[in-house]
UniProtKB/TrEMBL annotation:
SUPFAM superfamilies: FMN-binding split barrel. The keyword Transferase does not apply. InterPro entries: Flavin_Rdtase-like_dom (IPR002563), NADH-dep_flavin_reductase (IPR050268), Split_barrel_FMN-bd (IPR012349). One of its GO terms (molecular function) is FMN binding. Residues 1-25 are annotated as: Disordered. Residues 8-17 have a biased composition (Low complexity). Keywords: Oxidoreductase. The keyword Nucleus does not apply. This is NADH-FMN oxidoreductase RutF, flavin reductase (DIM6/NTAB) family. Residues 33-179 form the Flavin reductase like domain. Pfam families: Flavin_Reduct (PF01613).
Length: 187
């Protein structure tokens, strides 16, 4: 699959000055991005080498067809797990699931399918990817494309199945976890 590019060039008056040195070092970018509150997900893949990881680089892409994306470091085990299975699950964590966010971010947890032995989960309908019980929402995705994004890959998935429930969201902001706004249909 090749990525289509639909870019509109900026007028030269809006382009950055070539005389100014770049100021967006990895440290500066990390500090700036800490000002952007995000939801927390656990991405999962099934199979003999099943894997899960906490991620907040997740977003919707399209409603027709339904598509989402997640960004994963090319050195992460999840990167290879998604490439191998061509599917991934997404559990959008509730405010009560900070322990799961920390668990799936820990490098000390068991590897492979054994990492799910200590958590309550159910298999996604099409791929069997583990979905975490008690989450606010769940998605099951089939890999539609992979794109280069610096030291990460951008995985775009077609949503095969999705569900949600009411509750408060777990958020990440300024380097820490916070309880978010209620997830409800009425505003």
């Amino acid at each position: 699959m090749t990525a289509e590019r639909h870019l509109t060039p900026l007028p030269s008056s809006e382009l950055p000055s070539p005389e100014l040195p770049p100021t967006a070092s990895p440290k500066v970018l990390r500090e700036v991005m800490s000002s952007f509150a995000t939801g927390i997900t656990v991405l999962t893949a099934a199979g003999d080498h099943g894997h899960g990881m906490t991620a907040n680089a997740f977003s919707s892409v399209s409603l027709e067809p339904p598509m989402v994306l997640c960004c994963i470091a090319r050195t992460a085990q999840m990167h290879e797990a998604i490439l191998r299975t061509r599917h991934f699950g997404v559990s959008v964590l509730s405010a009560e699931q900070e322990d799961l966010a920390r668990y799936f971010a820990s490098k000390g947890r068991p590897r492979g399918q054994a990492q799910f032995d200590q958590v309550d989960w159910f298999p996604a309908r099409h791929s069997g990817a583990p979905l975490l019980s008690g989450s606010l929402a769940w998605l099951e995705c089939e890999l539609a494309g992979v794109y280069h994004g610096g030291d990460h890959s951008i995985f775009v998935g077609t949503v095969l199945d999705a569900a949600r429930r009411e509750g408060e969201a777990l958020l990440f902001f300024a380097g820490g976890f916070h309880q978010g706004m209620p997830s409800s249909r009425s505003a």
